[in-house]
Design brief:
The protein is an alpha/beta fold. Helices cover 48% and strands 16% of the residues. The protein has a 5-stranded parallel beta sheet with strand order 2-1-3-4-5, with helices on both faces.
């Protein structure tokens, strides 16, 4: 089981760290790489086309601005792709990235997270991988229980 975390620029790492953290929390092996849809399109297509053969089971792709990376990668692979819109310095408050990723053509789906929602992207990938893995399902159950406990503690702290 291995996941690719890719991003259009190293400046996206601050956001994409959330996906890394989520996968680490569940002990999911992963690879992190900068692949630019606009500056290295050939490398992007090659990566996407070979991802399954290279042992990946899913791809989390973060991109800002025009945010073509998740959709273009999804067009070149059969693996699930989760897009994380990044609010970058050249973006329109992240809306351009969100809409670029969410408005995919019919037949080329990308699961789209919230702007800067990389942790949820990682967690969603864990849920995808857990569909065929009882140990991972148990870890997810424990995680959900811990969320409930946090809310219970918040309510106790209010008193």
């Amino acid at each position: 089981m291995k996941v690719a975390i890719i991003m259009g620029s190293s400046s996206d790492l601050k956001v994409m760290q959330g996906a890394i953290d989520a996968l680490n929390e569940f002990d999911i092996p992963h690879m992190v790489k900068v692949i630019s849809a606009h500056r290295t399109p050939e490398a992007m297509i090659e990566f996407a086309q070979k991802a399954l053969d290279n042992g990946f089971q899913g791809i989390i792709a973060g991109a800002g601005g025009a945010a073509h990376l998740p959709g273009m990668v999804a067009s070149a692979t059969t693996l699930p792709v989760i897009g994380v819109p990044v609010k970058s310095s050249n973006s329109l408050d992240g809306w351009d990235s969100l809409l670029s990723i969410a408005q995919m053509s019919k037949g080329v789906p990308v699961a789209t997270m919230a702007v800067n929602g990389a942790y949820n992207g990682g967690l969603f990938m864990v849920k995808i991988l857990a569909t065929g893995n009882s140990q991972l399902q148990e870890k997810l159950k424990n995680y959900k229980d811990s969320l409930k406990e946090k809310v219970d503690q918040m309510n106790k702290d209010l008193i």
